[in-house]
């Protein structure tokens, strides 16, 4: 369980001050939790604060009962944490097994036999046991991500934080990665931060949407989907069309008799030929973002 | 022990060419010079070159780490990171100095004008520690490795260029007093100042490294 109260983070000072988080309140229970938001929403800042790397400007955080405001609490929280950063840097000259072993040492897994058992176990979990003794510099992007998740798991963390883990992966790797995260969430808290709506829909039972440093939505993916109810339409046209102001084209499907547009927006502005459609999670997200933009 | 091994394995290997190249260069120069000129080159390497290399390597030691964010997410303390990196750099300096002294010994070059065996080691060790601490503190204060390297290099150059003035007016703070004036009565105080200054700079580095977000 993670509890976040009135969390704020501002980078810089004076005229250069840039607020990244503005009063975030969240309770994140055990299981798979999705944090969704556009680029620059503050997701990475929030992930880094939870990982104990960035200090908040204001607010309180408890990770499994450990207070991140104190040095002792932060160290205890880090010991039960697994973290996969968005920009994953590793030591290319080390083998996958060496790298994971090194991270286990840094995380305080002292007993050599236990460490060896854990390294073998996590490399098997991410299907890298056959490449365990190959140098990381020869790995593909997907394999590196898997080494990243292996190092995050090597201390058997109660909280796993993964920031944009599927960015840059091919579809097959993405599916494999999502399935792995769902499996891992069975007995721990997994926080998945992403701007890819599909990743959340496929994995999370609980989701928060962050934009401009604020939580816009907190609930289930189904509730986020339902938020767009009555605001989604499809229009089929034989040539490309410009959407009316206030409408957003969510997708275009090229059919034999034209192009089918999927639109999200207020009912008043919809094309007369438009037909109502059942919303998807992506529609819900787009509708939420449109409402946020309208408030500015 | 294994942590030490990985510290070594994860260290940027390309940077090791730098001390090795200078070691080979100066060993080569000593070999080809006439015996009367060898001592000056020998003490120049130990007293000036080893500290400069230590200072520059230290500037890159902490922040030039591809897995820095991951490292910061572990319970490892700032002091442990500094100790590991500084220890590695001092080890590289010590190995370079030791190999060079073995070469000098093989050629029959006498370093006793610099003092006894301990004094000879202090000739390179204290300036190296001071410049390494300065390089680290500079890199961490500016959140850029180049700033630390520049600072260490600039102080080294200024001290070298102003050595006569420093020897006359600021002997306690003169980095190269041990190699230029090994019999100077201010040498014990100089050693204390260099050591104390290094400790102070390392404390500053420790305080700076605790603010991990500055380096991401």
Give the topology.
The complex is a heterodimer of chains A (296) and B (216).
Chain A (H helix, E strand, L loop, with lengths): L1 E10 L6 E11 L2 E6 L6 H8 L7 E6 L2 E2 L3 H9 L1 E4 L11 H11 L5 H14 L15 H13 L5 E5 L7 H14 L4 E6 L2 H7 L2 E6 L2 E6 L1 H6 L5 E6 L10 E8 L2 E7 L10 E2 L4 H15 L1
Parallel strand pairs in A: 3-8, 3-9, 6-7, 7-8
Antiparallel strand pairs in A: 1-2, 1-4, 4-5, 9-10, 11-13, 11-14, 12-13
Chain B lengths: L1 H9 L6 H16 L2 H27 L6 H5 L5 H29 L10 H26 L2 H17 L1 H7 L7 H4 L6 H23 L7
Helix pairs in contact in B: 2-3, 2-5, 3-5, 3-6, 3-7, 5-6, 6-7, 6-10
Shape of chain A: globular
Unreliable stretches of chain B: none
Order of helices and strands of chain B: HHHHHHHHHH
- In what range is the share of β-strand residues of chain B? under 5%
Radius of gyration of chain A: 21 Å
Q: Cα-atom Rg of chain B, whole angstroms?
A: 18 Å
Strand order across the biggest sheet of chain A? 6-7-8-3-9-10
Structural class of chain A: alpha/beta
For the largest beta-sheet of chain B, the strand count, sense and barrel status come to: none
What value does the average pLDDT of chain B take?
Answer: 93
What is the 3D shape of chain B? globular
Mean pLDDT of chain A: 90
The tally of domains of chain B stands at 1
Order of helices and strands of chain A: EEEHEEHEHHHEHEHEEHEEEEH
- SSE class of chain B: mainly alpha
Residue share in helices of chain A?
25-40%
Amount of beta strand of chain A: 25-35%
């Amino acid at each position: 369980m993670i509890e976040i109260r009135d969390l704020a983070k501002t980078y810089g000072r004076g005229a250069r001050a840039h607020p990244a988080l503005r009063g975030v309140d969240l309770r994140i229970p055990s299981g798979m939790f999705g944090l969704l938001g556009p680029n620059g929403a503050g997701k990475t800042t929030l992930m880094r604060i939870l990982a104990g790397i960035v200090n908040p400007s204001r607010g309180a955080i408890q990770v499994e009962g450990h207070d991140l405001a104190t040095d002792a609490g932060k160290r205890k929280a880090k010991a039960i944490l697994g973290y996969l950063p968005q920009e994953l840097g590793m030591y290319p000259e080390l083998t996958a097994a060496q790298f994971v072993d090194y991270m286990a040492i840094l995380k305080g897994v002292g007993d050599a036999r236990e460490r060896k058992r854990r390294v073998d176990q996590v490399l098997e979990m991410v299907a890298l046991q056959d490449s365990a003794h190959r140098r990381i510099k020869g790995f593909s992007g997907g394999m590196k991500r898997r080494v990243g998740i292996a190092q995050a798991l090597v201390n058997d963390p109660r909280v796993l934080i993964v920031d944009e883990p599927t960015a840059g992966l091919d579809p097959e790797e993405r599916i494999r990665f999502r399935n792995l995260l769902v499996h891992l969430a069975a007995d721990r808290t997994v926080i998945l931060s992403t701007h890819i709506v599909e990743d959340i829909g496929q994995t999370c039972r609980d989701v928060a949407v962050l934009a401009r440093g604020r939580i816009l939505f907190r609930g289930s993916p189904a509730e986020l989907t339902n938020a767009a109810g009555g605001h989604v339409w499809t229009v089929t046209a034989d040539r490309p069309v410009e959407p009316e102001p206030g409408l957003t084209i969510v997708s275009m499907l090229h059919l034999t008799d034209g192009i089918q547009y999927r639109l999200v927006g207020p009912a008043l502005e919809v094309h007369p030929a438009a037909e109502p459609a059942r919303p998807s999670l992506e529609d819900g997200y787009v509708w939420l973002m449109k409402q946020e933009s309208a408030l500015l | 022990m294994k942590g030490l091994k990985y510290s070594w394995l994860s260290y940027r290997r390309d940077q090791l060419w730098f001390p090795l190249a200078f070691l080979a260069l100066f060993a080569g120069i000593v070999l080809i010079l006439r015996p009367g000129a060898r001592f000056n080159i020998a003490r120049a390497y130990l007293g000036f070159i080893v500290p400069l290399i230590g200072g520059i390597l230290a500037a890159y030691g902490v922040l030039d780490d591809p897995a820095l964010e991951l490292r910061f997410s572990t319970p490892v303390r700032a002091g442990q990171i500094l100790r590991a990196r500084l220890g590695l750099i001092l080890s590289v300096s010590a190995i370079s100095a030791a190999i060079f002294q073995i070469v000098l010994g093989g050629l029959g070059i006498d370093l006793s004008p610099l003092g006894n065996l301990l004094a000879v080691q202090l000739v390179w060790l204290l300036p190296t520690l001071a410049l390494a601490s300065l390089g680290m503190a500079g890199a961490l204060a500016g959140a850029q490795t180049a700033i630390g390297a520049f600072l260490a290099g600039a102080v080294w150059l200024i001290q070298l260029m102003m050595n006569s003035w420093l020897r006359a007016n600021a002997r306690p703070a003169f980095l190269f007093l041990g190699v230029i004036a090994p019999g100077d009565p201010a040498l014990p105080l100089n050693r204390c100042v260099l050591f104390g200054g290094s400790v102070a700079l390392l404390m500053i580095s420790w305080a700076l490294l605790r603010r991990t977000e500055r380096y991401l």
